[in-house]
Amino acid sequence: MSLPKPLMRGLLGKRLRFHLPIAFGLSLVAAIAFKYGVTEPRKRAYAEFYKQYDAVKEFNAMKEAGVFESVRPSGE
Amino acid sequence: MLASRALSLVGKRAISTSVCLRGGHGVAKVERYTLPAYFDRRENPLPDICYVENLSPVQASLKEKEKGSWAALSADEKIALYRISFHQSFAEMNQESPEWKTVVGGMFFLFGLTGLLVLWQRKYVYGPVPHTLDPEYKQKELQRVLDMRMNPVEGISSKWDYENKQWKK
């Protein structure tokens, strides 16, 4: 009958002191990973796409393919 | 009168929990499930009632002894008193068991069974799919998607080489 008295107090505080920094750290890592893994490549992809983008050329190609209702391909 | 006769048939223990004799009427019988219950839970360390409700003579005398100085109790008596009040100790109730294997196994088995059921259903219950899922239709659909330049930056049209009329390598 000589067990040590178990921890009765400060249990939540102990848990928070351990888990909160880890939680913050992991969230930060997740945010940074998303920024540099997803958003930066995406921004670059859009920038690259619009550098060489000729709207009129694209429009004409789409017109010839026949997807518009207001303007039909030049053949018809 | 009738109620008290019925009471003596039901037994002594029932007196506290069944018909009350006031004014000749009975009161509704108290159901056992409405009374406080005992259960071993980590988050509820002191249950509403003691585990052992009907003390044997030995246990009753121990309870009397408990009313005196606790230093006079031996270690075994203290344990006996604990066991009167509680069913399992925290160590016992928090024990891990291999039950999870049964649970996971049963889960997978039921997934499989459900899968078979779904397959059967797909074959024998459902009618044919719409014509829009025919291969020729899907081809024409894809051609139209590429013609419309859908998702040209990162999506499907960006993977198509418009000059050479093929998928980009």
Count of helical stretches of chain A: 2
Mean pLDDT of chain A: 94
**Estimated radius of gyration of chain A:** 30 Å
Distance between the termini of chain B: 98 Å
Strand content of chain A: under 5%
- Which stretches of chain B are poorly predicted, pLDDT < 50 over at least 5 residues? none
Q: How many β-strand runs of chain A?
A: 0
Low-confidence residue ranges of chain A = none
Helix content of chain B: 40-55%
Strand ordering within the main sheet of chain B: 1-2
Return the structural class of chain A: mainly alpha
What percentage of the residues of chain B does DSSP assign to strands (E)? under 5%
User: What Rg of chain B is obtained from the alpha carbons, in whole angstroms?
Assistant: 36 Å
| Sheet with most strands of chain B | 2 strands, antiparallel
Average of per-residue pLDDT values of chain B: 88
Largest contact between chains: A-B, 11 and 11 residues
Give the SSE layout.
The complex is a heterodimer of chains A (76) and B (169).
Chain A: H1 11-51, H2 55-65
Chain B: H1 2-10, H2 12-15, H3 57-66, H4 75-85, H5 90-93, H6 99-124, H7 135-147, E1 160-161, E2 166-167
Antiparallel strand pairs in B: 1-2
Helix pairs in contact in B: 3-4
What descriptors fit this protein?
heterodimer, A: 76 residues, mainly alpha, rod-shaped, B: 169 residues, 7 helices, elongated
Structure description:
- The complex is a heterodimer of chains A (76) and B (169).
- Chain A is an all-alpha fold.
- Chain A contains two helices and no strands.
- Chain A is rod-shaped and about 100 Å long.
- With 169 residues, chain B is an all-alpha fold.
- Helices cover 46% and strands 2% of the residues of chain B.
- Chain B has seven helices and two strands.
- In chain B, a hairpin with a 4-residue loop joins strand 1 (160-161) and strand 2.
- The longest helix of chain B has 26 residues, at 99-124.
- Chain B is elongated, with a radius of gyration of 36 Å.
- The relative contact order of chain B is 0.05.
- The model of chain B has no long low-confidence stretch (mean pLDDT 88).
- Chain A binds chain B through residues 1, 42, 45-46, 49, 58, 61-62, 65-67, and chain B through 75, 78, 144, 147-149, 152-154, 158, 162.
